[in-house]
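Late entry, written up from scratch paper. The run itself happened at the end of the previous shift, but nothing got recorded in the book at the time, so transcribing now.
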Amino acid sequence: MGAKNNNKDDTSSIVPKWIEARLFEGALKEVESEFKEIVDFKAKGALAPGENYCTIMLKADFIIKLKDESTKPLSFMLKVGHDTDLFREMMEGHNIFGAETGMYREVVPELEKIYSDAGVNVKFGAKSYTLATDQSYILLENLKEKGFRNANRLDGLDMEHTKCVLEKMAQWHAASAVRAASKGMYSDLYSEGYIRPKSFDLIKGMYESSEKIFLECVKEYSNSDLYYGKVVEMYQKVAVEMFKTADTKHDSEFSVLNHGDAWVNNIMFCHDEETGKILETYFVDYQIPRYASPAQDLWYFILSSAQYEIKLQQFDFLVAFYHQHLEKNLKLLKYPNKIPSLKDLHLMLYKDGIWAFRTVTGVMSAVLCDPNENASLDNFMGESDAGAAFKRQMYSNPRYRKHMEAILPWLLYRGLLDY
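Output as recorded:
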């Protein structure tokens, strides 16, 4: 019996024409040893607008027939690229599919093995599979079938969930540092993220296209007289300052393989159904890793994704909590070099403090934006009328404004608006 392709729904228009049921047969055989044939197949959009910007996430649903003639449902998550000029320009600067494919097939298993060799079972994410195609894609197991869920990005993560993420981040960072110490530098594909010369004009252009609207909105914030002048200066130089961090000499300071995009939608949790206890925490979207100071991931995650009530008031505690687990795992894995002290970590956070401003003016505005049909990569980075309207909505929405009215004075008084 031939497989039916049943893609008739509201989201089928975003499914690329090259996606066909037959391409998945190898992956289905890997998942189910009794696989015989595909009975039905349907691909559809998995996320609402505003839940993912850089790529398109699809859910591929199957009904398969087994060798005993019974049937069984199975599903995968499939990531593909946007068919836009902007996305193609991004790919020229940094091949996110090449990077993420390598991360899932090489780096993640390698770091997990470092822990297993030390007698500890640690998993960092979903299992990946291959398709019989030359197209760019990432194919992953559907973690929701194992009970994993995302948190609500608008609410942010409470203390318990934030600590679980920082504990897993410390495990990842520790293993990545041990691997670098034993095997040498990571490939450029993994080590630079988008902080590379080819991406500079794109990032600088993104800030230039948003500058007028962003600064108009900031000027309306209730306490803007405290920091507005410094924010203007910072906004105009943030791209240049970010790319200066690309010159870091990794042999002279503690460096890790940053996830690079550790915000709430790129983290999934599995809870005990009865008690609600967090059983496991996984990262997803390993598409812009970067070998650098752990300050990048710490600023990015805490400021973008922790609840309003804890991201500033408990910031120093969260850094100390992360450091405690980083130190523990570096010792467990017998890291051969100097383990950074908590003081060292705070100095890294100051030195790479540009990531604080980068986070709150970039990803945090998207994290806190209400669900919106206009939430797209082109509108986030472009200069169209629709893009301008979307940006004004992001920067002026009460939720984002509330966070910024607390964060900008906090950055000011820490000296992090001075560059």
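Residues 87-126+153-413 form a domain with the Aminoglycoside 3'-phosphotransferase; Chain: A, domain 2 fold (CATH 3.90.1200).
(Scratch paper discarded after transcription.)
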